[in-house]
Amino acid sequence: MAEAFNAVGLRATKVSEVDDVIKESLKTDKPVLVDIEVDAYENCYPMIPAGGANNEMILEDPPEMKRGAKPASKVAGEDKDTVLTA
Description:
Layout: E1 8-12, H1 15-27, E2 32-36, H2 63-66
Parallel strand pairs: 1-2
């Protein structure tokens, strides 16, 4: 998609790739679209809910997440370098 707009597209799918992707994006003179894959259950803030508007921005975990509930991505023994997680 980036190339269709005369931009550079970069992607990181592992934690070990993030620094290199960021460095590469800063070296280019063209617009850059950076895709960093994260676990589907990871909460990246701030976020706007699907179909929501800017004034519906979520800034932090909901109360049920703050009580110590762990999403499926935090299962012990999971390979942390397979998909980016916090």
